[in-house]
Design a protein that fits this description.
By secondary structure, the chain is α/β, with parallel strands linked by helices. The protein has 2 domains: 2-19 and 261-377, no CATH class; 24-164 and 185-255, Spore Coat Polysaccharide Biosynthesis Protein SpsA, Chain A (Alpha-Beta Complex). It has 14 helices and 12 strands.
Amino acid sequence: MIYQLILLTIIGLAAINLAANLRTIRIPHKHMPPLHGSPFVSILVPARNEEANIARCINTLRAQDYAHYEILVLDDESSDRTGEIVTAIATEDPRVRLLRGAPLREGWAGKPHACHQLSQSARGDYLLFTDADTAHAPHMLSTVLPLAQHSGASIVSGFPRQIVRTLREKAAIPIVYFLLISVLPLSLTRLGRSLPRSFMNGQFILFPRPEYDRIGGHESVKARILEDMFLGFEVRKRGGLQLTLNLSSVVCCRMYRDRSSLWEGFVKWGYSFSAVWPKATPVAGICLLVVFSSPFISLAMVAFLALEQGARLLLITLLQALIILSGRLACDRALREPAVSSLLTPIGIAFFLLAMLYGTVLRLTGQEVRWKQRRYGGHSAVR
C-alpha cells in the first residue's frame, strides 16, 4: 500500500509538470509581434527516397506568406523519383534548388551528412531544417520567425502535429510526446534556462545562422543517429537558449506509414540511447515501466483477482490510471492528436518499451541498426 501511495505521488508530480509545460509552451499565431527587418531564411530539406512526400512538402513551403526565403532540397542518394520530382518543381519556381548529395562519408550518420551539405549552400540569416515528410501552414514562417527573433533563442524546435492514420500509428506515435512533456521540465526554457536534457525535434529546427556556426553545425553531431537531440546539447554546452514551441498549428508530419518503418524508427532510438548512455538507459526504462505502465497492470490484477485490501488498492490504482489518462487526453488535445490515441496509452507504452529494449539488445550484442536503407553501429563510430 505504501508503494502504491508513493507511486501515486510521483504520477501526480508528473501530471503537474505536464500541465505546467502545456501552459507555458508557446503557440505560433497570426497576431505575433512584428519582425525587426526582413531576415532571409534558408529552408533546408534533406530527402532520401521521399517520392511519396516531397512534392507536398515543397509545395506547402512554396505557399508561405513570408517573402524572403529559399528552399534547398538535398537528394541523399535516393533510388526513387525524389530528385526528378524536385527538379520539375524547381523549373517552375526559382526559389527552389535541388542539390545532389555526396556519398556518405565514414564516421557520419546519413541525416547530419545531408544537413551539413545543405548548410554549406544556404544563404539565409536563419536556417530552418525540416523533414521531407512534413507539411506547413502558409503562415508558418511569418509566425515562428517573430518568436525566434524576440526570444533571442539560439535554437528553436518543438512539437509538430503527428498525422496518424492506422491504429498502430495512433497507439505508438503520440505516446512519445506525452512521455517527453510529462518528464522534461520544458517550462523552464520560458524562463531563459537551459535544460540538462533538452528536447529538439529534427522535423523542425530553426537556427540563427551565427548560432549554428558557433556550435560547429551538423559536423559537431556527425556521428549521432539522434542528431536533433545532440544539437540541443551542443547549444546548451555553449550557453545558448532553447525555445520549444507547440507547432501543431503550423507544421504536421506523418513519420511512419508502414509497420517496418515504425518499428525501425523506434528501435533506432533505443539503440542510440543505450549506446550513448549505457547505464542510464535501463534505469530510464524501469522508471517508465513503473510510473506509466504498472498502474494499468495493477488495476487489472486488482479488478480480476481476489486480493486482500482489494477495495482500497482498486481505488488507488484507478486514481493512478485516471491521472495518466487525463494527462494524456490534455496532451493530445493541445497537440491536435486524435482522442482515441489516449485510450491506447497502455499499448503505446508497451510498444515503446519493447522497441527500446530490442534496440538495447542489438547494441549490447554488437549488431547494427537499420534506418533509411542504411546500417549503423557495430564497429562503426556512428551511435
